[in-house]
Amino acid sequence: MRLLAILIAICVLSSSVHGQDEAAPSDLAVTAQGLRIVKPAPEGQDDLRAFSWTTGTTIALLVSAPKGGLIAFDDDASELKLFLDDKRSDLLKAKPADEMFGRDAGFGMMPSISEDGKYCLVEANVVGVPTEGSTRLAVGGDLVVKMASEKKDFTAESVALKKGTKVEAGSIPMTISEAGEPDWGDAPLAITLEAKTSLDTVADIQFFDVDGKEIESETAGESSMGFGNQVTVDRTYNLGRKVDTANITITYWTDLKNVTVPFQVVVGVGL
Hints:
Elements: H1 2-13, E1 22-23, E2 29-38, E3 56-64, E4 70-73, E5 79-85, E6 106-107, E7 112-113, E8 119-126, E9 137-147, E10 151-160, E11 166-167, E12 174-180, E13 189-195, E14 202-208, E15 214-215, E16 217-227, E17 230-239, E18 245-253, E19 257-267
Parallel strand pairs: 1-19
Antiparallel strand pairs: 2-3, 3-8, 4-9, 5-9, 6-8, 7-8, 9-19, 10-18, 11-12, 12-13, 13-17, 14-15, 14-18, 16-17
């Protein structure tokens, strides 16, 4: 009980860190979805690491939003503040034994969000492992998620699908940075759209021919370079038909907001 009390106290005292964000709706919940512990391999036997994974402890956290609306997880704004075992060992203070394969404490880089926007799965990672004989772990901090529910369409008409063409539809100016055969796969045409800001507010991008018939497309990859607001984002689409000109409809989230979800979870062998 003392472990849980300490965790709750720390989370309550630190809940103002992200004061610029909106408070989490009361129906949002965070629960443990998985636990992985990897002890250091025997000296000189790195290939014997359990699960072929780096040394440390990982707790998978599931954010549940019954009404939906989860769009993205903000790793930069989120903070892991507490990771203790019931022997009072602070796993956050552990340092990687191998700088090449070590990692800082924090959240996994590849969160998963369900298509209906009701769930977000993210991993909380530390380098330390629980003290021998411990039976429970306490993890706490702030998860920051992006939420939205309302959309609006903007269309750029008669866009020449060639390198250098400007695409102006809605609040984010884009440029076609590449157009031609895809790097892999057999799609007739690949289009890369470049923006000088995050595309978090973009819910969807669709392509239509001059007759208004949708051109089947799928996202083929996205990359981002830069920091803060100074970023360049490239998103590539593979199109099902090769055309010279298209209408491009960009759907935006109009009510996107950051929501801070303070969490405190105690995990044992029985999740």
